[in-house]
């Protein structure tokens, strides 16, 4: 039961943030409650509180899938937010307006709306609102294909902005995970989205959890783990049902249908799609309506219902023609090509396929660095095989016609040459995508300052090392290193000098450790070292060698006689250790080393 809110509660930052979370678990109750508050504030002419009530009501409508009602509430809320000049209310309403436009594929309007959201967030002075608006701006950039700038925005936030608010941590991890999925780095994407889901389960409401369950399922789908994908889609479906989020139900049904189609379970796929389609249409979610119709085409082609497939292709074409989405145009032409193959009209099939490749090129040019997923998922080997098959069938058909008409020879030559050009284009794209993926994967695992492995990379190395140690019955050890009085270096000599100290450590560690050992920067001046088959005596030698090399030559900006020291905690792994337990033990003895006077190594079993 939601009790009546005090008049001032809606403009208290802590209160309305918590109310957004509460609305996520019980949207219907919050729709009713905000309606009462709107009536109360309207009668009292309290326009700022009235605008905030509308902002909360919009989110409740979104959580229950009532998009048209959310849109109407946004317009009303903005009217009163302008009267009260409430920057907070304007920001929240513009944020929800942006999501509304994204849902419909109206990317230009979404971009305009998020610019207003960022301006008002900055004017509000609320740092969390500014972060939320910046994350949403990155989301819009991702949707428009500008992956490089979206990733740059998120990485800048990661370096320069901090928030303890769970919602923003979830949004950050969810979006950056989605971007890594876009560029083909599926393992990193999965890690971020799993982090977002863990946070949402602990701190946020049920709608947020359902969205993250859905996102994690799509990540597993991209990684071709259909079983785990199905499990998380089913969880998202159940949560959406529980909170009466019909649109969320439709999203889950659509993705489960796509798995059914992949497994050639066409009838079950069609049942799910026919349940999802009305929700997408009523919500005005045109991109999802188009995708659902294209999925139906695949299912009907699978059951050889060609006339029904044709009708869905016509309907999908009508929807897609209202959207500026080259990706959808590409998929549409692929389905037309498949349809014409089924009709044995190979000439039309090849023409449609060539058109799909042209749209692929437009997507390539538009999205800049969004190169890997399109090729890895949709083109890679599959498209080359499709081209070869089309050319083979066309060749057979033309050979028969050559018996009756010699001039068909020239058409065959033209088709073969065109097909070869398509193969060359696709091959060139594949090579570009492979290079882009390699670059992204390397950047995602490197520390910007030192070029050493970053926290994500070294933690992953340690986790894999623990598994390898158990399988091969080897001994793994972990050391945590932290510089002594590093803050004093920064304060006295400047952060540039502190950066050079960190860079020196990366150089020294790389030279001092064996090929089978690894190191990485955890953050700040803290480092992690991972060893296989080292003794306590080896640990002492490593500590002394690195200390000696760190001070073997001056560092620019420090006095020549300045001695750099660090403390190290070292421990061997136990068979039952997880990364967290192993790290905690090493960190505990690092603290002991600091407590005993620094510049020392402390070892524990």
From TrEMBL:
Its cofactor is Mg(2+). Residues 256-283, 376-408 form a coiled coil. SUPFAM superfamilies: Nucleotide cyclase, TPR-like. PROSITE patterns: GGDEF. Its EC number is 2.7.7.65. It catalyses: 2 GTP = 3',3'-c-di-GMP + 2 diphosphate. Residues 474-605 form the GGDEF domain. The keyword Transmembrane applies. It holds the Pfam family GGDEF. The keyword Phosphoprotein does not apply. The chain crosses the membrane at residues 409-431. One of its GO terms (molecular function) is diguanylate cyclase activity. Keywords: Coiled coil, Membrane, Transmembrane, Transmembrane helix. This is diguanylate cyclase.
């Amino acid at each position: 039961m939601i009790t009546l809110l005090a008049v001032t509660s809606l403009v208290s930052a802590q209160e309305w943030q918590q109310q957004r979370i509460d609305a996520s678990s019980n949207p219907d109750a919050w729709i009713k409650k905000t309606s009462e508050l709107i009536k109360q504030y309207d009668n009292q002419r309290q326009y700022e509180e009235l605008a905030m009530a509308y902002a909360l009501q919009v989110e409740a409508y979104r959580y229950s899938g009532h998009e048209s009602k959310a849109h109407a509430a946004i317009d009303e809320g903005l009217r009163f937010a302008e009267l009260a000049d409430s920057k907070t209310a304007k920001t929240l309403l513009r944020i929800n307006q942006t999501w509304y436009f994204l849902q419909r594929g109206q990317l230009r309007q979404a971009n305009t709306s998020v610019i207003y959201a960022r301006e008002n967030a900055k004017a509000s002075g609320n740092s969390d609102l500014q972060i939320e608006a910046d994350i949403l701006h990155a989301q819009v950039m991702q949707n428009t294909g500008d992956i490089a700038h979206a990733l740059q925005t998120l990485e800048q936030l990661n370096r320069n902005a901090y928030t303890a608010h769970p919602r923003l941590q979830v949004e950050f991890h969810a979006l950056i995970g989605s971007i890594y999925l876009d560029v083909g780095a599926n393992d990193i994407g999965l890690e971020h989205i799993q982090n977002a889901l863990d946070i949402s389960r602990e701190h946020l409401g049920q709608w947020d959890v359902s969205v993250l369950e859905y996102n994690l399922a799509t990540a597993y789908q991209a990684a071709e783990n259909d079983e785990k994908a199905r499990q998380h889609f089913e969880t998202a479906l159940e949560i959406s049902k529980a909170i009466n989020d019909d649109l969320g139900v439709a999203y889950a049904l659509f993705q489960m249908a796509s798995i059914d189609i992949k497994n050639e379970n066409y009838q079950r796929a069609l049942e799910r799609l026919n349940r999802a389609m009305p929700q997408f249409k009523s919500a005005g979610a045109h991109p999802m309506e188009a995708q659902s119709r294209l999925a139906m085409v695949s299912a009907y082609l699978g059951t050889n219902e060609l006339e029904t497939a044709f009708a869905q292709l016509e309907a999908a074409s009508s929807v897609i023609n209202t959207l500026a989405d080259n990706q959808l145009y590409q998929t549409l032409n692929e389905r037309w090509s498949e349809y014409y193959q089924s009709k044995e009209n190979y000439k039309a099939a090849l023409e449609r396929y060539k058109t799909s490749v042209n749209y692929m090129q437009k997507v390539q040019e538009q999205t800049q660095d969004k190169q890997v997923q399109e090729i890895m998922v949709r083109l890679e080997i599959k498209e080359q095989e499709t081209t070869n098959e089309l050319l083979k069938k066309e060749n057979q058909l033309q050979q028969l016609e050559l018996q009756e008409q010699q001039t068909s020879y020239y058409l065959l030559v033209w088709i073969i040459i065109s097909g070869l050009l398509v193969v060359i284009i696709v091959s060139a794209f594949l090579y570009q995508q492979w290079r882009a993926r390699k670059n992204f994967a390397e950047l995602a695992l490197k520390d910007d300052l030192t070029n050493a492995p970053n926290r994500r990379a070294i933690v992953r190395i340690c986790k894999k090392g623990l598994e390898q140690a158990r399988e091969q019955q080897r001994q793994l050890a972990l050391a945590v290193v932290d510089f002594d009085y590093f803050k004093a270096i920064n304060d006295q000599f400047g952060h540039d000098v502190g950066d050079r100290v960190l860079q020196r450590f990366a150089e020294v560690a790389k030279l001092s450790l064996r090929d089978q050992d690894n190191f990485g920067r955890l953050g700040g001046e803290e480092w992690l070292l991972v060893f296989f088959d080292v003794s306590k005596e080896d640990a002492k030698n490593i500590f002394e060698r690195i200390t000696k090399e760190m001070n073997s030559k001056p560092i620019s900006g420090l006095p020549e006689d300045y001695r750099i020291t660090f403390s190290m905690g070292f421990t061997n792994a136990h068979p039952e250790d997880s990364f967290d337990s192993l790290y905690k033990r090493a960190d505990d003895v690092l603290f002991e080393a600091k407590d005993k006077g620094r510049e020392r190594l402390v070892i524990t079993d």
